[in-house]
């Protein structure tokens, strides 16, 4: 795969990125400035990218998710 000249490579493959949408309002997502998260172009909700995997959980769901994960 060809690397772009950008200083930070896109962490998510473009075909995957193209089908991603905000779980709250279904708008397109954009990379944050340092590409460590995705930001909804409509409602502005931020979704972190962990190990090149976007965590598309609403802030409320994420709290529950993190809590469950910490129990393991
Ligand atoms: Zn949204």
Question: How would you describe what is shown here?
Answer:
- The chain is an alpha+beta fold.
- It has one domain (14-71): N-terminal domain of TfIIb, CATH 2.20.25.
- It has helices spanning 14-19, 59-71, and strands at 29-31, 37-40, 46-50, 53-54.
- A hairpin with a 2-residue loop joins β3 and β4.
- Zinc ion (ZN) binds next to loops.
User: What is the average of the pLDDT values?
Assistant: 87
Q: Rg from C-alpha positions?
A: 13 Å
Helical residue percent band = 25-40%
SSE arrangement, N to C:
HEEEEH
Number of helices: 2
Shape: globular
CATH topology: N-terminal domain of TfIIb
Count of distinct strands: 4
CATH architecture: Single Sheet
DSSP strand (E) fraction? Answer: 15-25%
Distance between the termini: 37 Å
Class by SSE composition: alpha+beta
Q: Low-confidence spans: pLDDT under 50, at least 5 residues?
A: none
- State the CATH class: Mainly Beta
What's the arrangement of strands in the largest beta sheet?
Answer: 1-2-3-4
Number of domains in the coordinates? Answer: 1
Distinct bound molecules = zinc ion
Largest sheet: 4 strands, antiparallel
């Amino acid at each position: 795969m060809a690397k772009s000249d950008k200083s930070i490579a896109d962490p998510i493959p473009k075909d995957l990125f193209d089908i991603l949408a905000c779980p709250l309002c279904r708008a397109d997502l954009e990379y944050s400035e340092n590409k460590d998260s995705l930001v909804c172009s409509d409602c502005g909700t931020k979704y972190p990218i962990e190990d090149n995997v976007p965590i598309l959980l609403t802030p409320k769901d994420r709290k529950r998710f993190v809590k469950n994960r910490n129990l393991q």
